[in-house]
Amino acid sequence: MARLIPEQRFAAVVAAAARTFITHGYQRAQIQDVADALGLGKGTLYGYAQSKAALFAAAVRYGDGNEPLPRPEQLPVLTPGDGEIAALVAARLAGEAGNLTLIHVLNTALPSTFDPAEGDAELASIVVDLYQRLTKHRVAIKLVDRCAPEIPELADVWFGAGRHAQVLAVQEYLNRRSQAGTLTLPGPAEPLARTIVELCALWAVHSHFDPAPATARPDGIDDIAVSAMLAEMVVRATTVSRR
After folding, report:
1. Could you say which architecture CATH assigns to the domain 84-242?
2. End-to-end CA gap in the chain
3. What whole-number distance in Å separates Cα of residue 79 and Cα of residue 178?
4. 8 A C-beta contact, residue 110 and residue 180
């Protein structure tokens, strides 16, 4: 008979599931892999999640600690219905997108007098805000980015409303400020916008799952310092007052 694990161990199940899906991808990951990572019998794990799809959904929903864990009487987590995971990701994206500093700036008219120093601060705040929001959803982003190519409905949301929409918003900002004369772009707006987004994603998300930084720096990555560094790099490369 499979041994039971304490109710409070659901957080450990979520963490192990996230690591498993990030390592193996969705198709190759197995419930047994998660059970082995926890030192549990496979049957015990079914007390926490009905299926592999349920484990994946739980990792996306709870992996970053942004939602309270289900109560014991709500377990096991049920297998999601068609489109449910994609809807979850879409809702998370929409919830963050509406509050981005970038979107607020795009929705606000540029003052007739705009000091270059204000432009520096505006651009830096956009980069730092983007970075910080990525860190809030680090586990979910890594999971979705790793597994979306294997889940068509999720790929449509992630690569469309997620990454591509973010790049387009940054591109729109760069074009507007360039046309207004408050930015001097070092190259075309489209690759520059993607470079900004991908640099933030690299350091806010992907580097935290790379064993090399952890080996080189036992204290890990300083997100505050790195976000400030990236903001300064972008400001130096694009703003009129620094060129």
Report:
1. Orthogonal Bundle (1.10)
2. 70
3. 48
4. yes
CB of 94 closer than 8 Å to CB of 64: no
Query: Which tokens hold the place of 143?
Result: 């999971």
* Candidate CATH numbers 1.10.1740.10, 1.10.8.60, 1.10.10.60, 2.60.40.420; the one for domain 7-74: 1.10.10.60
Instruction: Say how far apart CA 26 and CA 30 lie, in whole Å.
Output: 8
DSSP string, 129-144: HHHHHHHHTHHHHHHH
Encode pLDDT of 69-120 as tens digits. 998 888 999 999 999 999 989 888 888 888 899 999 999 988 877 777 788 8
Structure token digits, residue 172: 């729109």
d(CA 133, CA 201): 10
Structure tokens at 23: 């390592």
Residue 23 confidence (pLDDT) above 50: yes
pLDDT at 4: 52
Q: Which residue type sits at 113? A: T
Q: What is the pLDDT of residue 92?
A: 86
Q: How far apart are CA 21 and CA 17, in angstroms?
A: 6
Closest listed residue to residue 100, CA positions, set 130, 125, 121, 128: 130
The tokens describing 216, both together, are 């080189």
**pTM recorded for the entire structure:** 0.90
